[in-house]
Known about the structure:
It comes from Pararhizobium mangrovi. It is built from two helices and two strands, in the order αβαβ. It is an alpha+beta fold. The protein has a two-stranded parallel sheet. It is globular and about 25 Å long.
Amino acid sequence: MFLEKHVSDFNQHFYVCGPxxxxxxxxxxxxxxxxxxxxxx
Length: 41
């Protein structure tokens, strides 16, 4: 998966904008929900 290959530290803030599958992946890979910012579509 792209995110696992290119991101080694999920203990940081993320600005997430993209397909629903990608948004879900960031959460499932261990990113802190309080560190996620989502762009409204």
